[in-house]
Design brief:
42% helix; alpha+beta
Length: 142
């Protein structure tokens, strides 16, 4: 409920920052999209606008991934739920190239930034060690 929203948003933001850092250091990850990793003018704007935290959304691209390896990553997750929602207290993951953007051609997906290896996470409030372990295990499977 609304009574716990500030606590949950703080946990979402803190967990997402840790996830973004973990992914940015992972050898199977090409790029990570999260405000905490931005620099220069983009970071200044994020800091100015997102004064209550950066939220729980993290996007990343698996290095040298095919559509199949993106799907395999999703299928290998044990804790993350595979849904298109965002903002749940549970961690959620989706592979847009095979779900929400599957009707687009590869060229159209590329124009929107949805590559075959792009994954979108909505990081929940579970214990961060469990979140990281699940992501690491799924990345090792790709």
């Amino acid at each position: 409920g609304l009574e716990t929203l500030p606590l949950r948003m703080r946990a979402h933001s803190e967990n997402a920052i840790t996830v973004a850092k973990f992914l940015s250091d992972h050898d199977k990850v090409k790029i990570v999209i999260h405000p905490s990793l931005m620099e220069g003018e983009n970071r200044r704007r994020a800091d100015a606008v997102m004064t209550g935290g950066f939220g729980g959304l993290v996007g990343f691209e698996i290095d040298n991934a095919s559509k199949e390896s993106g799907q395999k990553f999703i299928d290998s997750l044990k804790m993350f739920y595979h849904v298109a929602n965002i903002g749940d207290s549970r961690s959620l993951a989706i592979h847009p190239a095979s779900t929400t953007h599957s009707q687009l051609s590869p060229e159209e997906r590329d124009k929107t930034g949805v590559t075959d290896g792009f994954i979108r996470l909505s990081v929940g409030i579970e214990h961060i060690d469990d979140i990281i372990a699940d992501l690491d295990g799924a990345l090792k499977s790709t």
